[in-house]
């Protein structure tokens, strides 16, 4: 009798550093946890809009005081080069991650073997190097 591994689905958007942490930790422990991991890129902006919600950092100004400290601590613990942006609203709220998330979804559907690497490249651009990541030109960079 063949026993199937439990399926764990991770819905993620590259605008969330905590999605990156979940992504890396679940990939790292997939074998140990004996699970089948399914990675599903989503647009958190659309989720916020549909639920009439706003990002936590935007709701509570006091969170923005602890956010950089938390990112540094979490990044250090997991070995992920997380650095907070100088202006979260400008980098993530004013710019949509729709293009990157659509691209990652297309990879998931048609070239799944590139999904993990492309997701990491987006997170590195967004949360380590603070480079522009939301335009079509970023997608083209992945192929050069």
Write up this protein.
InterPro entries: DSBA-like_thioredoxin_dom, GST_Kappa/NadH, Thioredoxin-like_sf. One of its GO terms (molecular function) is glutathione peroxidase activity. Pfam families: DSBA. The chain has 144 residues and is mostly helical. Helix content is 58%, strand content 8%. The chain has helices spanning 17-33, 44-50, 56-59, 61-78, 88-93, 98-110, 115-127, 136-141; strands spanning 7-12, 36-41. A two-stranded parallel ribbon has the order 1-2. α6 packs antiparallel against α7. The longest helix is centred in the middle third of the chain and has 18 residues, at 61-78. It is globular. The chain starts with 6 loop residues before the first strand and ends with a helix. The mean pLDDT is 87.
Topology:
Layout: E1 7-12, H1 17-33, E2 36-41, H2 44-50, H3 56-59, H4 61-78, H5 88-93, H6 98-110, H7 115-127, H8 136-141
Parallel strand pairs: 1-2
Helix pairs in contact: 1-4, 6-7
Q: What is the topology, as strand order, of the major beta sheet?
A: 1-2
Mean pLDDT, to the nearest integer, reads 87
Order of helices and strands: EHEHHHHHHH
Sheet with the most strands, sense and barrel status? 2 strands, parallel
What is the number of beta strands? Answer: 2
What is the global morphology? globular
How many individual helices?
Answer: 8
Distance between the termini: 47 Å
Q: Give helix % range.
A: 55-70%
Strand pairing plus helix content: what structural class?
Answer: mainly alpha
Query: Radius of gyration over alpha carbons?
Result: 16 Å
> Which parts are unreliable, with pLDDT below 50 for 5 consecutive residues or more?
none
Strand content: 5-15%
């Amino acid at each position: 009798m063949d026993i199937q591994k439990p399926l764990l689905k991770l819905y993620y958007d590259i605008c969330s550093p905590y999605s990156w942490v979940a992504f890396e930790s679940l990939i790292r422990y997939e074998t140990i946890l004996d699970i089948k991991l399914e990675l599903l890129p989503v647009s958190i902006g659309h989720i916020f809009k549909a639920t009439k919600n706003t990002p936590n950092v935007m709701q509570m100004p006091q969170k923005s005081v602890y956010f950089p400290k938390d990112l540094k601590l979490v990044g250090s613990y997991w070995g992920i080069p997380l650095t907070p942006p100088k202006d979260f609203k400008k980098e993530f709220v004013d710019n949509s991650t729709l293009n990157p998330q659509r691209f990652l979804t297309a990879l998931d559907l048609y070239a799944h073997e590139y999904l993990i690497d492309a997701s990491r490249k987006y997170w590195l651009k967004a949360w380590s190097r603070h480079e522009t990541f939301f335009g079509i030109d970023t997608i083209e960079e992945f192929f050069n």
